[in-house]
Write a structure and sequence with these properties.
single chain, Rossmann fold, 2 domains, 9 helices, about 30% helix
Length: about 290
């Protein structure tokens, strides 16, 4: 199957082809080739040469006529191409709302699926959380993320409680705890026992790679997200964010660390693997192709 991924100015799945498909070390490109998949990145002019199409939800951020026009154009091309296709949403609904509204939910995967779409998880790679050496880390809390109102307010409350906090981001926070840009997320995370992770949006069950990254680096994580988000395979491997839970962090840590180790050294982590991600997209495209032939 020749799959054409429509080029997007924000992010492209094609960039992942050089990564490992799972813990085996086989590259995504090699795995796809073994499955008879030719994956190319191109624009709408290349559609004729493809057997199946991958679109991404078009960003309307900032809002404007040009972005609205692109969203509508992409939706029209899906319908007139007469080819199997899938739409992939890697952003919260608030950032590409028109594509969410116009798409066929049966042919879409989203990291913010709400009640309409199929769930997909951001793909990532496995890492040893090194929980055995956890106590050698700094007994402080790390927060990696750009400054947003909810994050700044939460950080101020933590600071008022006397909790030691180090904050990393490209954009400066209006707090003296800001330490600059985290050039290497893994290196920074492994210095700390604890980490706070807030999603960019707390709606429509949005779930990014942030939580898994923190867990696989061995941090006891306090996670802020949509209250309706359900992650049963991760149960016990993190704590929902609250000021009370952060204060009780020493008490909560042993159980969370045990569950982190169990999660990362079982097949459960594969919910975030490249293989799971690409298999979901390819199987959906093949399903659409069969339905068109029937």
């Amino acid at each position: 199957m020749r799959i054409l991924e429509i080029l997007d100015r924000t992010w492209n799945v094609h960039d992942l082809l050089v990564r490992g498909i799972d813990e085996s070390g086989e590259r995504v490109s090699e795995y796809l080739s073994s499955q008879g998949i030719e994956w190319r990145l191109g624009d709408l002019d290349d559609i004729r040469s493809a057997e199946a199409l991958l679109f991404k939800g078009a960003m309307i951020y900032p809002p404007g006529p040009r972005n609205v026009t692109r969203s509508v154009h992409l939706e029209l091309m899906k319908r007139i191409s007469n080819k199997p296709y899938v739409t992939l949403f890697g952003e919260p609904r608030e950032y590409c709302w028109l594509s969410y509204d116009l798409c066929d939910p049966a042919k879409a995967f989203s990291v913010a699926p709400g009640k309409r779409m199929n769930r997909i998880f951001f793909p990532s790679y496995w890492a040893d959380p090194e929980v055995e050496s956890w106590e050698k880390r700094e007994d402080r809390i790390c927060w990696i993320g750009r400054p947003m109102g909810s994050r700044i307010r939460a950080a101020k409350k933590l600071i008022e409680e006397g909790i030691e906090l180090d904050i990393y981001s490209k954009r400066p926070w209006p707090l003296e705890q800001w330490r600059g840009f985290a050039l290497d997320e893994m290196e920074i995370s492994r210095q700390y026992r604890y980490r706070i992770v807030f999603e960019n949006e707390w709606t429509n069950k949005y779930h990014s790679e942030k939580l898994f990254n923190s867990i696989k680096y061995g941090c006891v994580t306090f996670y802020g997200s949509d209250a309706s988000l359900d992650l049963p395979q991760l149960k016990g491997a993190y704590s929902p964010y609250s000021l009370e839970n952060v204060i009780r962090r020493d008490e909560l840590a042993p159980s969370i660390l045990s569950n982190i180790k169990q999660f990362m050294f079982s097949d459960s982590w594969k919910m975030y693997s490249m293989k799971t991600f690409f298999d979901a997209l390819i199987n959906k495209l093949k399903e659409d192709a069969r339905e068109r032939k029937a």
